[in-house]
Amino acid sequence: MAETNSIDMLADIMAMSGFPQSSGMRVVAAEPGNVALALTKKPELTQFFGHFHGGVIAGLADQAAGAAVSTALPKGRIAVTVEIKINFLGPADGEEIIASAEAIQVGGSIAVAKVEVVSESKGNRRVCAFGLATMRAVEMPARP
Asked: What end-to-end distance do the CA atoms of the chain give, in Å?
């Protein structure tokens, strides 16, 4: 059986330049096939009502789904998105959003993950979005 990616690999992924790093995403919990990522509200992540922007919610869900699948892949492989569907269930009006993703099917090249995004404020949590992502396993890119 092939060795799977370690949870430590998530730190490398999250440290890469781009949206996850610049938005302030952070790992809340991780185990093989399950990852939770969070974002704290800041003005550049909101829309005109002051809630988290739908694109930011989808981006966090996408990153969490990819991370969950990546932790279940053989060492040296990483998940990239083929397709993602997000249902918005209500405004993300909390101070933080948390995306919890689970790899529900991992094959040699294609995987599927489900993800739930909650909006949290002062200990109150409400599901604001739910998604399903199809991911492709590719070689981990070389770091410059």
From this structure: 30
Nearest to 61 by CA among 82, 36, 33: 36
Nearest alpha carbon to residue 44 among 58, 18, 23, 15: 23
Q: Looking at the domain assignment, is residue 2 inside a domain?
A: no
CA-closest candidate to residue 44, choices 27, 56, 31, 32: 56
Q: What is the mean pLDDT of the chain?
A: 91
Q: pLDDT tens across 30-60, in order?
A: 999 999 999 999 999 999 999 999 999 999 9
Q: Which residues pair with 52 in a beta bridge?
A: 46
Is there a domain that residue 128 lies in? yes
Q: 121: how many CB neighbours lie within 10 A of its CB?
A: 13
We report the CATH number of the domain holding residue 48 as: 3.10.129.10
